[in-house]
Amino acid sequence: MNTPMIIDALAAVQSAILANEAQIESLDRAIGDGDHFINVRRGCEVAVAMSPELRTLPPALALHKVGMKLLGTIGGASGPLIASFFMAMGKQLEGVEEPNRSEFALAFAQGVEAIKTRGKADVGEKTMLDVLIPVSRLLLRLTEEHAALAQVCAQLTHEAEQNMLATRDMIASKGRASFLGERALGHIDPGCKTCAVAIAAVCQTVLQQETPSEAA
Fold first, then answer.
1. For the chain, N or C: smaller number of CB within 10 Å?
2. What domains are there in the chain, each with its CATH number?
3. Do residues 55 and 10 lie in contact, with contact meaning Cβ atoms separated by under 8 Å?
4. How confident is the model over 90-100, as pLDDT tens digits?
C-alpha cells in the first residue's frame, strides 16, 4: 500500500459515497443528526484535493496530513473520529516506505482503536465501530493466515455488509440515535453504511492495482 494507491483509494471512496448519497442521507435523517453525509462529503472533497501535495510523501506522512486536514474541516461528531483514524494509521506506519499487508492491517487496527478510544464506544452500540471493529479483526486474521488478496477483499466486503445490516436490530447507546430508544430499531446506522461503502471501494481499488498473481 503505497501513497499513490492511498490517493486512488480516497478518490474511489469519494465516488462511492456520492453514488450512495440518497441512501446515506435517508438513514441519517431517520436516526442521525442530519449532517452526516454533508460532513463525509466535505471530508472526501478535502482529502482528494490534497492529492498533488501527498503524492511524493511516504504513506505515514500522507495519512497524517490527511488526518490533520480533516480535523480542521469536518464538522459534527464524525470529524474528530475520522481524523483520529488517519493520524493513528500514520503514526503506526512511521518509517515504513511501502507497507506490506501485515503492516497495513496493523495500521488499520490502530486507526480503528483510535476511533474507539476517542468516541468511547464499542461493538454493539450502533455506531461505525459495528463495522470497523469486526472488519479490522478479520483483516488481521486473514493477513496472519496469508490469505489470497482476492479472498481478503471478498471477505472484508461481506463482513462490512453483514455487520452494517445487523445494526438494523440494535438500540443505539451513542449519538443522537440513543435518544430514540426502540424507535431506532429497524434503521441501519448511517455511519456503518458509509464505512461499508468505503471498505468496498478500497477493496476494489486494491484489487484493480495488484498483479494477477498477488490477487489470486
1. C
2. 3-215 (1.25.40.340)
3. no
4. 999 999 988 99
